[in-house]
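#struct-help
A.M.: can someone run this one for me? Single chain, 189 residues.
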Amino acid sequence: MPTEQIVRLVCHPSTPTDAVRAVTVHVHRSADGVLALGFRLEGDLAHILVPAPSPPGIAHRLWEHTCFEAFIAVDGAPGYDELNFSPSGEWAGYRFAAYREVADLADESRAPEIATRPSGGPLALDARIQLAHLSADHRQATLRLGLAAVIETREQTLSYWSLHHPAGQPDFHHADTRTLRLEPIGERW
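D.P.: on it. Structure tokens below:
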């Protein structure tokens, strides 16, 4: 299993948009327990609403506007973590014991590192997550990732992008969206 992958998100068929050409994610899991995600949004950025820069910190309901998301589960476990990354620099984190059953909200001690480059090409957002901040199990476990994006246009319509969409309405929490399997990486000496 490669330690680095580039995956392409697909738009939910009920939320098409001409403003977006592609959403890709560069995924890297390091031996020191860091999950790095590089989201790239290519399209007509003049027609996409990108949140203005804000001081880094926790903010809720980020999915109501353009944001990128990661759903991280230990393979075979019912619980999972949801992390939202806004191009504004804000973020949110939620721990679920099972499907949409909130167990915990993230605090600043679990803050990811976020960097955004919204000009001069595609919108780019890089996030670095310390897996041990999610739980001690995450660092050396096989993980299942669901990667997603919500894109808001100037017309205030939302499109939903994911690695995989189960039947029905967009639902990033559904276990079937966590299709990317990441094996643990041994410590390097």
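A.M.: thanks! The longest helix spans residues 131-134.
D.P.: also worth noting: The chain is about 0% helix and 45% strand.
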